[in-house]
Amino acid sequence: MVASTRTASCVENGAHYMELPTFYGHTASGTFEGSCRDCGLVKRFPARYRRDQAARGRGHAASASPRLDVSTMLAVQHLPIGPDTVLDALSHDRRGSASGLERLAVQVDASPILVDRMQRGLECLGHLELHRDPHTRVATEWEMLPATLAQAGCDSFVLTGVRSRRLLAALGSAATAHGAAIERLSQEAAPARIQVSGINTDTAARLAEQVCATSGTALQLVEQTPHQLVAALRPLSELVVELPTLSMIGFRRCQRWDSDLARWAPAADASTPGVYQLIGGTTTYCMRDETDLANGTMRRGDARIVKHAAAKASGAPLPGYDPSTATLYLPLGADLPESYARVAVSCSGLLPEEDTAQRISCYREVPPDIADNLANLLVR
Predict the structure, then answer these.
(1) Rounded to 10 degrees, what is the CA torsion of 294, 300, 306, 309?
(2) Does the pLDDT at position 6 exceed 80?
(3) Domain limits for position 112
């Protein structure tokens, strides 16, 4: 017996077995149809053999194949990816999902804490705006802000928003033409600060116009940035009132915020009024009062908002200020809420420095009136 030579179905190996009609010496059309034996796929084929195609095929086969000497090629260099590269990529895309921003951030540092710090840092520095879910406060989308010269001091301006090499080159040339100094200061987990100093607002306006004409990118000018931002802030009590009230969720373990020590303390449950960190599949921060306990609900919020709300309720606000160094400081892990931090950062264009020895976060170059306004808003 002769063994079967039938091949596997095209569904299995992707190769169609085309059955063609019998050729009787001539055809009435320029094409004919064939169908696959297994799946019924129909294809058209040319009915006549073309000599010019055959000639091209022979000529192509006879031509010499290209040769490449790989010894002359440069080796691929794997350059490190830093926060400035991330900002360059974001400036190219202009907007996107929060997950896309996270995928960029993990290429700088895969630590979840540093990824979160970079995302919040880009927002506090005024480079982008994060859109958050109103119930969970989790970032869902991001959008780059326009290129802006934001006035930080009386004669200093910080570049925020969209950034490109062409824009930076134009800014450097314009600064030199107007007698201004331009400084680049690297930061940890954040793009370098680009600061133009030694000019007043009128000169800064002319400088921005020149940069726009040279680079083709509109460069906005914002005067007295910290004062404009702090004037738009709402008291902390209004932010707390707007926290969404949700049904209480389950958790594996929980911690209660100790306002006296400014740190989390282990708790057996969340059955007493206070601020809690609920740890389960995800980490949730919430506030509970007597009404929430009676109704089985909680008010879910950002970790920073609920911590400052607990400090306000206890009568022990968290911020401190050193006028001799113009430094606003807070306990480590109890940073300012996003909108408040944006004001403090706009004073210098620098993210807060962490002093692990003293367990504090320090905002530099914060004027006394700005620090006083922030402290008052946090207790109102």
Answers:
(1) -50
(2) no
(3) 80-223
What is the DSSP pairing of strand 220-222 with strand 148-151?
parallel
On whether both 229 and 202 belong to a single domain, the answer is: no
Same structural domain for residues 185 and 250? no
Amino acid at 108: V
118 shares its domain with 178: yes
195, 347 Cβ separation under 8 angstroms: no
Is residue 90 within 8 Å of residue 142, measured between CB atoms?
yes
Q: Is residue 18 part of a domain?
A: no
Model-wide pTM > 0.70: yes
Task: With cut-offs at 50, 70 and 90, classify the pLDDT of residue 341.
Answer: very high
Cβ neighbours for 255, distance < 8 A, ≥ 6 positions apart: 264, 265, 266, 267, 276, 277, 279
What is the rounded CA–CA span in Å between residue 201 and residue 154? 8
Q: What confidence tens digit (pLDDT) does each residue in 355-374 have? A: 888 888 999 999 999 999 99
Contacts of residue 276, defined as CB under 8 A and 6 or more positions apart, other chains included, come to: 254, 255, 256, 257, 267, 270, 285, 286, 287, 288, 298
Number of domains in the chain: 2
In a domain, 113, yes or no: yes
Q: Alpha helix locations (H) across 125-184?
A: 165-177
Identify any residues that bridge with 149 across adjacent strands, giving them in sequence order: 159, 221
**Length of the chain (residues):** 380
Reply yes or no on whether the pLDDT at 182 is more than 80: yes
Last residue of one domain, picked from the residues 223, 239, 268: 223
Those residues whose C-beta lies under 8 Å from the C-beta of residue 116, and which sit 6 or more positions away, are none
- Residue 321: CA count within 13 A, CB half-sphere: 16
223, 252, 282: which is the final residue of a domain? 223
pLDDT tier, 349 (very low <50, low <70, confident <90, very high otherwise): very high
The verdict on 186 and 244 lying in the same domain is no
What percent of the chain clears pLDDT 90, i.e. is strictly above it? 47
Q: Which secondary structure element, helix H or strand E, spans residue 298, and what is its range? A: strand 297-300
Residue matched to tokens 């600064």:
175
Other CB atoms within a 10 A radius of the CB of residue 187 amount to: 16
Is position 16 within any domain?
Answer: no
